[in-house]
Design brief:
By secondary structure, the chain is an alpha/beta fold. It has 15 helices and 10 strands. Bound molecules: S-adenosylmethionine. Pfam families: Dimerisation, Methyltransf_2.
Length: 291
């Protein structure tokens, strides 16, 4: 049957609506991942040897029994988005309800990163925490605010403080923040020291600028004991730094001065730009040779 103009236009309207709905409900994917982290579904599957049925997952995550059908829907989102995988189906005849069911769920390369060590879960938990997600509700307002107060990030507009300063006022957020950043360093630095070994071997001393509790510097120091590693961070962060390691911790403000070293290292900075200078106030990463 040939489509008439009206059908073509209606299809175009439906396609346009679908496009908007796709973006409107896009947050469901990240919230489904957050629920998987909260419930530790990856651990539940791992606990069952990498393949777990829906009832096994439900039991392991202490699901309220009436919510099992909801868990099934959650698992559908998480398998469609590649977090978990479906390991075969149970034929319809084997079920009381006459529907085909997933026989078992398995881990994917993505969800394998959520179990064991190093696990990226603490970093994802930080990024999906209300404290980081809720500021985005004010994105439009933030964009209208111009430069007053100067250099205020979206996070600061919502919370009145930068993340690392909020950590001092709110110990629970502090733990979430520090564990999240440490988990990210733990994961990525294993790869960096393997892949960039030639770079580190040519360096005598290195300063990890805004290095937090020094997860990255610790990894470099461990892999390359000949590299003298220091971490520069704000005094209240350095106050919590681990003692008795080969890494030297220096309290200071990177906008005032940076200790001497052959190289400076920057990772996952989430810092506001210096007043009066153009910069990036969402993040930076990388490393560079000191002059
Ligand atoms: C997102 S964290 C990154 C920590 C670490 N580089 C990592 O990847 O785990 C940003 C760090 O920058 C530090 N920071 C912010 N402003 C700073 C400044 N002016 N001088 C030194 N450190 C600063 C914060 O205290 C915080 O530890």
């Amino acid at each position: 049957m040939a489509l008439n103009d009206s059908t073509t236009n209606d299809q175009a309207l439906l396609d346009a609506q679908r496009e908007l709905w796709h973006h409107t409900f896009g947050y469901m994917k990240s919230m489904a991942l957050k629920a998987a982290l909260d419930l530790r579904i990856a651990d539940a599957i791992h606990h069952h040897g990498g393949a777990a049925t829906l009832p096994q997952i439900a039991t392991r995550v202490a699901l309220e029994p009436s919510k099992v059908p909801c868990l099934q829907r959650l698992m559908r989102v998480l398998t469609v988005t590649g977090v978990f995988t479906v390991l075969g189906h149970q034929p319809a005849d084997d079920n009381g309800d006459g529907d085909e069911h997933v026989a078992a769920y398995g881990l994917t390369p993505a969800s394998r990163l959520l179990v064991g060590s190093p696990s990226v879960s603490p970093f994802l938990a930080l990024m999906l925490d209300t404290s980081f997600v809720s500021p985005f509700f004010g994105l439009g307002t933030w964009l209208q605010q111009g430069k007053l107060p100067p250099d205020q990030s979206l996070f600061e507009m919502a919370h009145g403080k930068k993340p690392w300063d909020l950590a001092t006022r709110d110990p629970a957020f502090g733990s979430l923040f520090n564990e999240g950043m440490a988990a990210d360093s733990g994961f990525i630095m294993d790869i960096v020291v393997r892949e960039c070994a030639d770079v580190f071997r040519r360096v005598g001393s290195l300063v990890d600028v805004a290095g937090g509790l020094g997860g990255a510097a610790q990894a470099i120091s461990k892999a390359f004991p000949d590299v003298k590693c220091s971490v520069l961070d704000l005094p209240h962060i350095v106050a919590d730094a681990p003692a008795g390691t080969d890494v030297k911790y220096i309290a200071g403000d990177m906008f005032q001065s940076i200790p001497a070293g052959n190289a400076i290292f920057l990772k996952e900075g989430y810092t506001t730009k210096r007043r009066g200078r153009e910069g990036n106030n969402t993040g930076y990463g990388g490393w560079s040779r000191a002059t």
